[in-house]
Amino acid sequence: MSVPVDARVPWVAMYHSVGDCSDDPYRITVTPERLDRQLTWLARRGLRGVSVAELLAAPDRRRLVGLTFDDGYADFVTGALPVLREHRCTATLFVLPGRLGGDNAWDPLGPRKPLLTADGVRRAAAEGIEIGSHGLTHTDLTRADDLTLKAETAESRTVLAGLLGTDVAGFCYPYGTVDARAVAAVRDAGYDYACAIDPGPLNGPHALPRVHVGQNDRAVRLFLKYRLHGLRRRPVEGL
Ligand SMILES: [Zn+2]
C-alpha cells in the first residue's frame, strides 16, 4: 500500500519514554517491543525514521519520517537506542540541559522517570542521534517572562553546544505550547527549526507539527494518523 504524501508536509512522530508502560497516566511511554513493531510497520511501507535535521535537509522527504523523543528520559539509551539501531533509524532527542541527571519533576502525576545525565546525552549523540533542546527546565514558554524566555531558548542552546562540542539546530516547545513571541525567541536564539504539536497558523520551520505515537498505535491507527497528517496539515512554508 503506497501512501502519497505532500513532501512539504514532513511527517514527524512524537515519542517520549520507551520502557515499562504499566503506570503511565500521561500516556507518554511505549514499550521497546511496540516501538519495534511501529518501525517495522514504517519499513514495510518503504519509510525510514530519521532525525528532524536529516528529514528537513533531504531533497526528497517522501520516504522519510522524523522520529522525535522528548524530555531526554534515561530509558532512551536502554529502551529506544537498541531498537533504532536494529532498524537503522536515527532520531532527534530533545533534552533539558537544566535537568540532566534529574527527573520529570514538572509532571505532578505519575511515576518519577529519571532523565539522562550529560554522559548519557553524549552517548546518544555518539550513536548518531541528533540532540536538540527542549529548553532548560521544561517551562511553558507562552507563560515565561522575557528573561526566562531568553534563558530557556538561547542559554539552553549554548549549554548544550558546550556539552556536545557541536552546534545545536533543533528546539522543541515544552508541552507543545507556542505563540508568536516564543517562535521569535527560538529563531533569535539561532535554531534552524523547532518542533511543536499543533501549531495552527504558526505552522512553519520554527513550529513544525508532530503526531503523537503511543502504545495503542498499532497498524490501523498508525495508517490513519499517517494519512490524516498529510491531509489535515497545511504545507510548511519556507521548507
Ligand atoms: Zn516535554
UniProtKB/TrEMBL annotation:
Q: Which InterPro entries match?
A: Glyco_hydro/deAcase_b/a-brl, NODB_dom, Polysacch_Deacetylase
Question: Where is the protein found, in the record's own terms?
Answer: Secreted
- The NodB homology domain is annotated at 63-239
Q: Main subcellular localization, coarse class?
A: secreted
Q: Which UniProt keywords apply?
A: Signal
Q: What is this protein called?
A: Polysaccharide deacetylase
